Amino acid sequence: MDYKLSLNVQCPLELLEVCPSYKQTPLVEISPLNNIRLFVKDETSRMGLGSFKALGGIYAVAKFLLEQWQEENGSQLPVQRLTDPQVRSWSNKFTFVCASAGNHGIAVAKGAELFNANCRVHIAHSVPASFSEKLTTLGAAVIRSGETYEESMVAAMNDNSKGEVLLADSSWPGYYHLPMLVMEGYTVIAEEMRQVFLRADNWPTHVFLQAGVGGLAASMAFEIRKNWKQQPRIIVVEPNAAPCLFESHKLGRATSVSGPISSMGRLDCKEPSLIAFKLLNELADDFVCVSDDDANTAANFLAQNKVATTPSGAAGLAAIFSNAKLNIAIPDHSACLVIATEGSV
């Protein structure tokens, strides 16, 4: 790969300073679980969009517009001017296109709405109607394309007859920059957690990161390895039905998989992001897969503890519940961290 894999959390933090909807999401500790401390980063209300994806899609739209302005005008545009009438009028010539299992599309649509650009989102027929309705409310055009995320991605990639901007949260040979911006936005989550753990001088020993194409898991792993004072064991968690990172790690190269549809809909991705896989293959300690039933059980447990999420959002906890059969060593008095990535659908 001839692309430098580097993320800088200060870039999205600078942009978020002028975003009125930005505030840190809660990091809560749930009562000890079988002699294990459990921390939950609650992304269920992130920026009013109900998912961590808000950080990636909105930031990537804004950063793209700033880069395009500089390219076209030869001068840097201050972040604060993105909402000026003149700049908003200029931004309206851009149409962002993406495929989504739900939340990425909502984030891109929100970014387009904020800065007066246009947006088209391709979603598979299996994506719940609630996501389609949210997208429409944000002004995006919604197109049902194919039966799977991968088929909707192909449709989005081909949707460029008028110079549309493909803003994917996955990557492949020759397509790296915009997915890296999406991942750079996600690093804010790890930085927020670092600040909390640093103040308390109380760090997790294990971090469980759920993965679809792998963008969130890779950005968390990158930021943890780069900036956290104490280093945990990092475990990547996927559905049994979509073990693309698990199989890629086993083979030592990015590979696609096949399988049934999982109830972990936002993680049901059969092909990994190339840049996410490269980072995770270097930085993660373990790759495991959990069942839909285990993820449902974990979501119910979190709901009982006032974190309302989905099986996708609870997949990391599902791996903790299944640690014995997954051969994950979690000694007594360990401190485990999971991310509840989205609100209940």
Q: Quick one: CATH class of the largest domain?
A: Alpha Beta
Number of individual domains: 2
Major sheet details: 6 strands, mixed
What is the spatial order of strands in the main beta sheet?
1-2-10-7-8-9
Low-confidence runs: none
Task: Summarize model confidence as the mean pLDDT.
Answer: 95
- Quantity of strands, as a count: 10
- Structural category is alpha/beta
Helix % is 40-55%
State which percent range the strand residues make up.
15-25%
Helix count, DSSP H or I runs of 4 or more residues = 12
Q: The CATH topology of the largest domain is what?
A: Rossmann fold
Distance between the termini: 37 Å
Distinctive features:
four-stranded parallel beta sheet, Rossmann fold, alpha/beta, 345 residues, six-stranded mixed beta sheet, 41% helix
What does this structure look like?
The protein is of the alpha/beta class. The chain folds into two domains: 10-52 and 179-340, Rossmann fold (3-Layer(aba) Sandwich), CATH 3.40.50.1100; 54-175, Rossmann fold (3-Layer(aba) Sandwich). It is 41% helix and 16% strand. It is built from twelve helices and ten strands. The chain has helices spanning 10-16, 53-73, 85-91, 103-114, 129-137, 149-157, 177-200, 215-227, 244-251, 274-283, 292-304, 315-321, and strands at residues 27-33, 36-42, 95-100, 118-123, 141-144, 165-166, 206-210, 233-239, 286-290, 335-340. The strands form two sheets. The protein has a six-stranded mixed beta sheet, with helices on both faces. The protein has a four-stranded parallel beta sheet with strand order 5-4-3-6, with helices on both faces. Strand 7 (206-210), helix 8 and strand 8 form a beta-alpha-beta unit. Helix 2 crosses helix 4 (103-114). The protein is globular. 51% of the residues are buried. The model has no long low-confidence stretch (mean pLDDT 95).
